[in-house]
Amino acid sequence: MNTTAAAEAPGTDSLAFTSYPNQNTQLGHLPINRALPRRERRTVGPWCFLDRFGPLAFTAGSPMDVPPHPHIGLQTVSWLLEGEVLHTDSLGCEATVRPGGVNVMAAH
Length: 108
Prior knowledge:
With 108 residues, this protein is mainly beta. It has strands at residues 3-8, 14-19, 23-27, 30-36, 50-52, 75-79, 85-88, 94-97, 102-106.
């Protein structure tokens, strides 16, 4: 179920804000909550994803298992609140993201 609220901004017509519930989905074996993209907001995707995962615990013997997936023609921004993630892309580039850190990746 979604909710809509209207607001007035100075010098503009009224604006409508719509709230949609997150969708539960999977990225490989990783459960995520996806806020964007939405079928109802087609102008946002497929170039913009807003996902949340965790809190989750991983060990050396059982790391985060995300299968290879294309990022052709987009940029990703990962903002980590807690923990640590080592991101390795298909070219072998690695980046460690720590709490409060941001990882920006541009794919061509």
